[in-house]
Amino acid sequence: MGVEAILPADFKLMRDYIERNCGIVLGEEKAYLIETRLAGLLAETGCQDYGALYRLAIAETGTAMRDKIVDAMTTNETLWFRDGHPFEILKEVLLPEFAQPLLTGMRFRIRIWSAASSTGQEPYSIAIAIQEYCREHPGLRPDQFEIIASDISPSALFLARAGRYDSAALGRGMPEELRDRYFHKDGQVWVLDDTTKKMVTLRKFNLQDPMEPLGRFDIVFCRYVTIYFAEAFKRRIFEGIARLTAQGGYFITSAVENLQSSEDLFESRHHGSGTYYRSRLT
Ligand SMILES: C[S@@+](CC[C@H](N)C(=O)[O-])C[C@H]1O[C@@H](n2cnc3c(N)ncnc32)[C@H](O)[C@@H]1O
């Protein structure tokens, strides 16, 4: 079966279904994304068109079809140490600040959340940066840092859990020195070491769901995800992150995720060429 053209009425049904279930907003010009990304599901289910696929999805009692649709519609693009400066901020500003209470015994654990962790590059880059910091700062231990990584995409989480990457994926941002320290080769695949994997707890989490059950965090990374969402949903996510990081926590996002309308929630700070945010909530 080839890629079926989507009818305007079916596009509206599918578009609304996708936004309801994961927040991703598709303008009319993005109809092709439904056609190209869901064509495999048409073939798999034997549905004649996208309207039939929609009816199948809303009729299901479980979430299997919804998971497949959402999985196919997410963009999982990511790389190691993405943008550089968030990791400089981590190493040069945030880890030194949080090391103090750990070293003096005032705190036992620092909690970090990678809120749209895709195939693992972001949380594992954080875990590697922390281990590098601990190597340079005797007295600190990687197990004093808890990293929660979450994503809505089951296939991205599956790949993250495996911690196995091909040379092309590893070549996108992983310095050779760190690659050789934290990975070993299994045929054509680079395998992340167990110590780094164990620092990260991966879980499925939809940013549409209440964040409170995740607990409070000292640092939240939420990058290259709210760009796909409507303004009101984006604001809800920022409010949630501001609450979770209230009283001294920090938020790191990307330069394309505009926080101008959230100045009441966060104070911006600058370090090198990067910006990070401190929750104003108490
Ligand atoms: C472009 S990737 C960004 C990955 C990483 N944060 C980075 O900056 O490299 C966006 C990720 O957001 C996830 N995502 C999309 N909608 C989501 C939602 N409603 N809840 C949780 N994750 C979502 C996608 O599955 C995808 O893995």
Features:
single chain, 282 residues, alpha/beta, Chemotaxis Receptor Methyltransferase Cher, domain 1, Rossmann fold, 2 domains, 7-stranded mixed β-sheet, 3-stranded antiparallel β-sheet, 11 helices, 10 strands, 44% helix, binds S-adenosylmethionine
Structural notes for this entry:
This protein has 11 helices and 10 strands. It has 2 domains: 66 residues, Chemotaxis receptor methyltransferase CheR, N-terminal domain (Chemotaxis Receptor Methyltransferase Cher, domain 1); 195 residues, Rossmann fold, CATH 3.40.50.150. Helix 2 runs antiparallel to helix 4. Helix 6 links the parallel strand 1 and strand 2. The chain is globular and about 65 Å long. By secondary structure, the protein is of the alpha/beta class. The N and C termini lie far apart (56 Å). The site of S-adenosylmethionine has 23 residues, from helix 6.
Task: Give me the secondary-structure topology.
Elements: H1 8-22, H2 31-45, H3 50-59, H4 64-73, H5 85-103, E1 110-114, H6 121-136, E2 145-151, H7 154-162, E3 164-166, H8 167-170, H9 176-182, E4 183-186, E5 189-192, H10 194-198, E6 200-204, E7 219-221, H11 231-244, E8 250-252, E9 266-271, E10 274-279
Parallel strand pairs: 1-2, 1-7, 2-6, 7-8
Antiparallel strand pairs: 3-5, 4-5, 8-10, 9-10
Helix pairs in contact: 2-4, 5-6
The structure holds S-adenosylmethionine.
S-adenosylmethionine is lined by residues 22-24, 74-78, 82, 116, 118, 121-122, 151-153, 156, 206-208, 223-225.
